[in-house]
Amino acid sequence: MADFIPDENAKLVTWLTNLMTQIDTHGLTLGMTAAEITAFKAMLQGIINDIQAVPAAKNAWQAAAATLRDTKRTKLNKTGPVRTEINQWKASGLLTTAMEQVMELVGVVVAFDRDAYKPVITAEARAGFVRITYTKLGVDGLNIYVRLKGQTTWKKLTYDTNSPYDDYTELAVAVAGTPEVREYRAIGVIDDEEIGLPSDIVSVTFAG
User: Fold this and answer.
1) Domain containing 168 — which CATH number?
2) How many domains in the chain?
3) Chain CA centroid to CA 47, Å
4) Are 110 and 118 in contact (CB under 8 A)?
5) Of 71, 88, 142, 206, whose CB count within 10 A is highest?
6) Residue 107 forms part of a structural domain
7) Strand partners, 185
8) Do 54 and 90 reside in the same domain of the chain?
9) Residue 205 and residue 184: Cα distance in Å, rounded?
10) Rounded to 5 degrees, what are φ and ψ at 188?
11) Do 90 and 37 sit in the same domain of this protein?
12) What is the dihedral of CA 21, 23, 26, 30, to 10 degrees?
């Protein structure tokens, strides 16, 4: 009879936990020494720890990203402490043009063409998720879409404002043990409205 080991993470944790319990009962009967039983159980627990680390890391990243968004929103906005201090320098009359330039306090205004805007994204398969990296380049954020290679309909994953975006929405491949090619694209968003052109389609082979 073929070996059975679940592929989906939640089921795998349950399976490994049960195996650890059964080894305590049957390990000696199966010819294992007490030391071998201990070592084998430690290995199984290590696998469980690695599985459980994935959602923990995801939650930690999401919390850190939320903190960063709040930091930018409160400290870098027009009334935040950074701009407030810079405005005080300007109002004091002590800030020279040369100082503005070396401190990079003035920028070059470039006309933004809403119709021609086209985001650039990359996709990279990681363990259990796909990482989408991008630069907003003048928009509020991006709507990110996905589909399986060969499909014609795009599925909207999210509206995102801080690169990178980690796609955990489809943790398991459609057929267990069979990698699949996923395609991603993004469209710029300003004031809740999609603008410009879709990004080039990027493909990634995802194994789960």
Assistant:
1) 2.60.40.10
2) 3
3) 22
4) no
5) 142
6) no
7) 145
8) no
9) 11
10) -70, 150
11) no
12) 170
pLDDT digits (tens, 9 = 90+) for 84-132: 999 999 899 898 989 988 998 877 666 778 888 999 999 998 887 889 9
Establish if 90 belongs to a structural domain. yes
- What is the Cα–Cα distance from 118 to 160, expressed in whole angstroms? 16
The model's confidence at residue 177, banded by pLDDT at 50, 70 and 90, is low
| 165 in the same domain as 129 | yes
Cα 41 to the chain's mean position, in Å?
32
Give the domain range for residue 42: 9-70
Is the bond into 119 cis (omega within 30 degrees of 0)? no
Q: Is 160 domain-assigned?
A: yes
* pLDDT tens per residue across span 188-203: 999 999 999 999 999 9
Backbone angles phi, psi at 26, to 5 degrees: -115, -5
Phi, psi (deg, nearest 5) at residue 85: -65, -45
Residues listed for the chain:
208
Tokens of 164: 């990178």
201, 123 contact by CB (below 8 A)? no
Pairing relationship of beta strands 180-190 and 141-148 according to DSSP bridges: antiparallel
Q: How many other CB atoms are there within 10 angstroms of residue 8's CB atom?
A: 13
